[in-house]
Predict the structure.
Amino acid sequence: MVMIEDKELAQLFKAESAEHLARLDDGLLRLEKTPADQPLLEEVFRESHSLKGAARVCSLPCTRGVRGEGWGGGEVRIKNYA
């Protein structure tokens, strides 16, 4: 298991990631009801990208090598480059 050694950074990441996950959860539930909502889809992708960025700042490997393709084009493909 990977740990963030800096306690202040770990607390900040925990709080920030909880916010991103809550917004992702809400967005995915709404997207389930309205899958053609392009602005909502983009909102969900921004949240996931922000969460991935926060994890990378903390050197967490859980999201390393995963990226989405087709941003804004209506088609989404996830590739794992790990």
Observations:
- The CA atoms of residues 16 and 61 lie 17 Å apart.
- Residues 7-80 form one domain.
- DSSP finds two helices and two strands in the chain.
- The longest helix spans residues 7-33.
